[in-house]
Amino acid sequence: MFGEVNATKELRRHGYLRYLTRHLSVANPREGESMSFVIPIEGNTLEIQRIMEDLEQFGIKNDLAQSDKSKKYLNITRDTGEFLSVLVKAMGARKILEIGTSNGYSTIWLASALPDDGKVYTIEANPQKVEEASLNFDQTHTSSKIVQLVGDVTEVLSDVSESVDFIFLDADRKTYLSLAEGLFNLLKTGGLLVCDNATSHADELSEFRAWVSSQQNLSVSLVPVGKGELLVYKGEK
Q: What PROSITE patterns does the record tag this protein with (predicted)?
């Protein structure tokens, strides 16, 4: 069964949003202008749109300033978020597994595309990122659709037995080959796995892609969106 994290309520309500407010300034749209970014989530207000814009810009600025890779967010691009949202809606997914939460930017995109009874189960090992993501889920009113799983991905997945409709893979690429068989066992027939960074880090994914291509029931397509999205459809054996 999937477990979940108990985050600190006070930190959720106050800490990270204040941090964003101190470090980012997002101008109000002029009268008659539309917002440049719209995410279809419950309670879709200008405040939520601004929070998402803040998260996008904060992630970019943070990663440019950080030399320590573990402190970077390495978020998906906005067009990748839009692409994932369309995929989830088109296939009618209700249960999603995400490998690599980071600060939750991609998770919010996924959750926003789900029906009210849908769930995203998202795995992250970094405790600080877990807390930051939890804050962001609260601020964007997506918490009810998200279950945070905390720990090493291999250990967490060993306790998972429920099948899922959709998997988003965006973590340590060196682990993908070792995770592949287990992930596709969890993916339902007719389900879809999407792997980020398929063109930006193609060399690091070569062994994983070779394994996927060797499986007769898997169909593959590389889509030039964002940093490159590798789509893998699971068919009947």
A: SAM_OMT_I
Tell me which residue has tokens 């980020």: 196
Residue type, 127: P
From CA 101, how far away is CA 116, in angstroms rounded? 21
Please give the residue that has the higher pLDDT: either 53 or 190: 190
Which domains does the chain possess?
9-234 (3.40.50.150)
Residue 17: pLDDT band by 50, 70, 90 thresholds? very low
- Nearest 5°: CA angle at 69, between 221 and 49? 65
Residue 195's beta-bridge partner residues? 169, 230
Confidence of residue 23 (pLDDT cuts 50, 70, 90): very low
**Residues in CB range of 74: below 8 A, 6 or more apart:** 63, 102, 170
CA-closest candidate to residue 122, choices 92, 102, 94, 144: 102
Q: Cα separation of 44 and 77, whole Å?
A: 20
Buried b / exposed e over 148-177, threshold 16 CB at 10 Å, is bbbbebeebbeebeeebbbbbbbbebeebb
Q: What is the pTM of this model?
A: 0.82
